[in-house]
Amino acid sequence: MKKVGLLLAxxxxxxxxFQYNQMMLEALCALPNHSYEIVVGYSHTAWKPYLKxxxxxxxxxxxxxxGRIWAQLLRYTKCSLVLxxxxxxxxxxxxxxxxxxxxxxxxxxxxxxxxxxxxIPNLVSIHDLMHRYEKRxxxxxxxxxxxxxxxxxxxxxxxxxxxxxDSNVGRDQVVESYHSDPSKVGVLPFSVPPYLHTSASDDExxxxxxxxxxxxxxxxxQFWEHKNHKRLLRAVADLKYRTPDIKLVLAGAPKNxxxxxxxxxxxLHLEDQIVVLGYVxxxxxxxxxxxxxxxxxxxxxxxxxIPPLEAMxxxxxxxxxxxxxxxxxxxGAALLFDPESVSEIAEVIYRLxxxxxxxxxxxxxxxxxxxxxxxxxxINRFEEILTTLSNKIK
Length: 394
Known about the structure:
- This protein is of the alpha/beta class.
- Helices cover 47% and strands 15% of the residues.
- The protein has two domains: 209 residues, Rossmann fold; 178 residues, 3-Layer(aba) Sandwich (Rossmann fold), CATH 3.40.50.2000.
- α1 links the parallel β1 and β2.
- α4 crosses α5, α12 packs across α17 and α15 crosses α18.
């Protein structure tokens, strides 16, 4: 029997990363209990409700004040990792907690620094390397952040036993960027987060509570520059005289672009066209997808993304940026556009807004696409990668 640990070290406001952690938790706990013993380490109490009914052991791993101090010291001074890995097993409480669990392998689904700060066999997810491929955005490309990410991802690739990526594009980027052994990188496409399978019984209450219009375009994304809200707003501004009833609902936590986006919203006089919800809980998100006219996602980051899968699962038509692995992920079930082009964004919104038959076709295609890669497929592929890796590190 293999003893496998999983670290849950992020909060619900982390957006797609939190949903990905839920996928990994669900997949790990679905593995046969006669072959695997599961240990879940968590550092945020927000995870407790997600863990209470699962058949697994749980441990609280407090990173605490000194954990953050040491992490920052390593981050900004580039102290010797070799020395750290030798000494921390005796000195650092978080490292000792990982070691004490006596797992054969630990899984780090949030590209965590602990994957190389703790000298244990591990499987690490790399969500993206957009600091290399989209360095124009300050959240990843400013010199200090870029240097940190380079150090961070190079350490993941050096010290990890195995790496998980979301797509063939993601695998190629890891291999190209850090000269990783391709056999070390496993492709595990995103699945639908478990929170999405909730009852529709409270939909009307949720819509009323959030004051959602009857017909709307939906975009759930934190307010980062790379999420491209500004071009989306300009597209809506171009359409508001052509389609006066146009409505856009935005959901996501404020980030580095939030203030300038709000300023642009007022400059373009879009107060009547746009609803800004801020952070929305898991409970409300399925309702917003179910009742949306369409998901329009003009992001510049990939390789792939979780919201298109969420939308397609609930029958919501999809339009996404034609970047990286997005065309492969949506597989003909989405309208594709150039995220640099305001006119292209406006055109897909217009088509979705006025064409009922197009929306019906996209909804049906989307349901077929998500049916080709099910939760069971995700779990089986995950177990295959885990088994292969476990055999290598015996």
